Amino acid sequence: DQQVKQNSPSLSVQEGRISILNCDYTNSMFDYFLWYKKYPAEGPTFLISISSIKDKNEDGRFTVFLNKSAKHLSLHIVPSQPGDSAVYFCAARTSYDKVIFGPGTSLSVIP
Amino acid sequence: GAGVSQSPSNKVTEKGKDVELRCDPISGHTALYWYRQSLGQGLEFLIYFQGNSAPDKSGLPSDRFSAERTGGSVSTLTIQRTQQEDSAVYLCASSLQTGTGEAFFGQGTRLTVV
Q1: Which end of chain B has a smaller Cβ tally under 10 Å, C or N?
Q2: Residues A46, A36: contact at Cβ < 8 Å?
Q3: Is any Cβ of chain A less than 8 angstroms from the Cβ of B97?
C-alpha cells in the first residue's frame, strides 16, 4: 500500500525550461511534505518542504505547490539547469511519525 | 562531525556471511531511519527508531534483518546469512521530530553479496 506515489519514473526537460515533478498521496493525516534530491553515489539531500496548512512554498528556483483536496503536490524548477539532473523523491509525514518516501522521479535536464 | 556518518562505505561479502552496518546520527536527533536502495529502485523503508519508543520494524524484509540503537545514538543494522538479493545501498538518516522532521541522510553503505 503505497501512501506516497510518483507516477512518472523519469522526465526530460530542456535547459532553461520549467521542470514539473508530481506527487500524489493517500493519507489525509500527513502534515508535512518534503522533496529530496539524490545524485548517484550520494545520500538524498533535503530540497524544500511545505506544511499542510499552506498551498505554496518558494525557495529560489524551486517552488512546491500543495493541493490538499486533490491530495497532490508538485515541485516546479524554473529555469531548469543541467546540474538539476538527479532523482527527486517526494516524502510525507505525520507529526511524530516516520517520513514516507515515494519511489522517485529521475529528472534529466538537457543542455 | 556535523552530518550522519555511515561505515563502512563499501562492503563485499560472501553469500551466507553476516554483516553489520553502522550509523552515527547527528547529535541530538531523536529519530533514526534505515532505508535501502536496490539498483534502479526507490527508497525502501526498513526500520525507524524514535526516542525510547519501540522501533517500527514494519519494513524489514525478513527475520535475517535486525537493527538496534544503543543509548539513543549509534545504530547497527545486522544482516544474517546474506543473500545476493540483499545487495543494495543501505542508507541511514536522522531527524528531529519537531517542525518538518527533515531527515538528514548519510552517504550510505554499498553492500555487495557475491
Answers
A1: N
A2: yes
A3: yes
DSSP secondary structure letters along B5-42:
EEE-SEEEE-TT--EEEEEE--TT--EEEEEEE-TT--
The per-residue pLDDT for B52 is: 85
Per-residue pLDDT of B78-93, as tens digits, reads 999 999 999 999 999 9
**pLDDT tops 80 at residue B1:** no
The answer to whether B46 touches B65, Cβ cutoff 8 Å, is yes
What span, in angstroms and rounded, lies between the C-alpha atoms of B113 and B17?
9
Lowest average pLDDT, out of A101-110, B13-22, B90-99, goes to B90-99
Neighbours of A63 (CB within 10 A): 18
